[in-house]
Design a protein that fits this description.
This protein is α+β, with helices and mostly antiparallel strands and 335 residues long. It has eight helices and 19 strands. Helix 1 packs across helix 3, helix 1 packs antiparallel against helix 4 and helix 3 crosses helix 4.
Length: 335
């Protein structure tokens, strides 16, 4: 269910200010992080706005004459936010509002001080886009914990839980390796995601080639190319799906704050929504859970998903418990 955003041009201007400040990682402080979180807490829609501004910030050639910097509204009790000093950063600020005027995704994005050995943790429903010092970019999904170490001879990421998508900068002398338990995925100049699941580690490749293996037997390696996915555990390849770019893109719709269902069972759909929301979808009836469904939904809109099911399937929705959305089979009526 899509709603019209009440965000104002002042909100978009504030988001541009934050992104400009975060562009200077060396100057970003814990106080800045706290002030950013206070601003985000003022309106849930600001989370998606900031994510879109960060994406727009990466676009090349976005230049306008620098305008006089303006103060950004801060949370009560906080000091006013000073504008970034970087002229090039402020030169792009004037056009960002237009780039993000359409559609607000229900996801949060923040950036911490970047350093070797840095640890990143996202909360439930939070999506974080993090540029790395080597030119790579991580997009970290909800409820994820990972560590990054950019060494002289290797670039290493340890994924403890959750999922992340990596756009890897080319550097043949420093391989980029993501480890999740015993499973390894290595790429040079490519884009791929790694997700830790109960049954193993899922690897989806959107660009280039990724080589994956288990530390238990590094001689057995699998090459996964763009449009393919693989599920690997400590002992063996569990599942492999060849060249189907569209399904891979659908599985990574979370990067844009969306859940893309394509013949997905309602149980799987509920699991996806539950990754991002405090209010959990519960489907107790196995027959209902096995129903398949198509659709594109915002990750932060489980109510909209439930209402769509009610309108299209023979189900009823119970929202009496504020912690859950219970989906049940509708009672049959006879004559």
């Amino acid at each position: 269910m899509t709603t019209t955003s009440p965000l104002t041009p002042a909100d978009r201007d504030a988001a541009a200010t934050w992104v400009a400040r975060m562009d200077d990682a060396a100057a970003w402080s814990t106080a800045d992080e706290a002030a950013l979180q206070a601003w985000l807490a003022g309106d849930p829609l600001r989370h998606g706005l900031l994510l879109q501004v960060q994406a727009a910030w990466e676009l090349p050639g976005v230049v306008t004459p620098p305008a006089a910097p303006e103060a950004v509204d801060s949370a009560p009790g906080d000091d006013a936010i000073e504008p970034a000093n970087d002229r090039g950063a402020w030169a792009r600020r004037g056009v960002l509002g237009g780039l993000v005027a359409a559609g607000i995704a229900g996801a949060a994005a923040t950036r911490l001080v970047l350093a070797n050995g840095a640890q990143y943790v996202t909360r439930l429903g939070e999506i974080r886009r993090v540029p790395l010092d080597d030119g790579s970019v991580m997009t970290i999904n909800s409820d994820t914990a990972l560590k990054v170490n950019l060494g002289q001879h290797a670039r290493e990421v340890e994924l403890d839980q959750g999922e992340a998508w990596f756009e890897v900068a080319k550097d043949a002398k420093r391989p980029f390796v993501v480890a999740s338990g015993p499973v390894r995925a290595q790429a040079i100049g490519t884009a791929f995601s790694v997700r830790k699941r109960e049954e193993g580690v899922e690897i989806l490749v959107t660009e280039g080639v990724v080589e994956t293996w288990s530390a238990a037997d590094a001689t057995q390696r699998l090459r996964v190319v763009a449009g393919e996915r693989a599920m690997v555990n400590a002992r063996a390849l569990v599942h492999y799906q060849a060249s189907e770019t569209a399904p891979v893109d659908r599985a990574l719709a979370w990067r844009n704050g969306m859940i893309d269902l394509n013949g997905t069972t309602l149980r799987e759909a509920a699991d996806e929504f539950n990754r991002y929301n405090q209010r959990q979808i519960v489907i107790a009836d196995p027959e209902v859970a096995a129903e398949q469904f198509d659709g594109l939904f915002r990750i932060g809109d489980p109510d909209g998903f439930a209402q769509t099911l009610k309108a299209t399937l023979a189900v009823k929705i119970d929202v009496s418990d504020p912690r859950t959305i219970r989906i049940e089979r509708a009672a049959e009526t006879g004559f």
